[in-house]
Amino acid sequence: QITLKESGPTLVKPTQTLTLTCTFSGFSLSTSGVSVGWIRQPPGKALEWLALIYWDDDKRYSPSLKSRLTITKDTSKNQVVLTMTNMDPVDTATYYCAHTAGILNGAMDHWGQGTLVIVSS
Amino acid sequence: DIQMTQSPSSLSASVGDRVTITCRASQSISSSLNWYQQKPGRAPKLLIFAASSLQSGVPSRFSGSGSGTDFTLTISSLQPEDFATYYCQQSYSMRTFGQGTKVEIK
Which among A75, A96, A97, A74 has a CA at the least distance from the CA of A28? Predict the structure, then answer.
């Protein structure tokens, strides 16, 4: 059974750096084809893809946010960490992490419950 | 960047109706198109991957079609639990979501 859970601060101040952790179980991020991604959703708005990391440590970032994002993995801890620098109130959103298996053509088949991040002074 | 455009942005339908949602990519994405359902306060749920493959456990009233730039999600007979927002997502290059289609009760 695959599960993912996001954790991190609920409130961050403008200009601060956000660090979110995705802790997962039921799969290994060292298995060929597997990846974990981050997606966010501002209140009442659409989903926005942010970044993903593959089993081989290959990384992909949203072009519009690439300069602010870093994604890393700790296979031994079953965790993926996303950092986002220079936070702004427009970054207020629910942040999700999600699993993709290699056979799913890049589709995200298991999602965490999401964590709400509010950016405010 | 590949842009994804869904239409309509919202629709009203009745239980039992056949519902069709369209997603268009700004360039060809082959069959690298996935569909999700999201209910308020919940994480998205994968319905269809690779344009037309039904995810395990998803009712057969959901189907997907298309390739290249034009794709369709069809619900053959709308059920009460299907009222939700639907998103398409391309996985051809990076990842991009459409803006969503909200299916409401008529």
Answer: A75
Q: What is the pLDDT along chain B (106 residues), one digit of tens a residue?
A: 999 999 999 999 999 999 999 999 999 999 999 999 999 999 999 999 999 999 999 999 999 999 999 999 999 999 999 999 999 999 999 999 999 999 998 8
Report which DSSP code applies to A14: T
CB of A33 within 8 Å of a chain B CB? The answer is no
The two structure tokens encoding residue B15: 């239980």
Q: pLDDT (tens digit, 9 = 90+) per residue, A5-44?
A: 999 999 999 999 999 999 999 999 999 999 999 999 999 9
Contact A64/A50 with Cβ under 8 angstroms? Answer: no
Side by side, the strands of the sheet bearing A79-84 are A3-7, A18-25, A79-84, A69-74
CB-CB under 8 Å, A113 with B50: no
Q: Which residues of A touch B89 (CB under 8 A)?
A: 47, 49, 107-108
- Please state, in angstroms and rounded to a whole number, the distance separating the CA atoms of residues B32 and A1: 26
With 0-12 / 13-18 / 19 or more C-beta atoms within 10 angstroms meaning exposed / middle / buried, residue B63 is middle
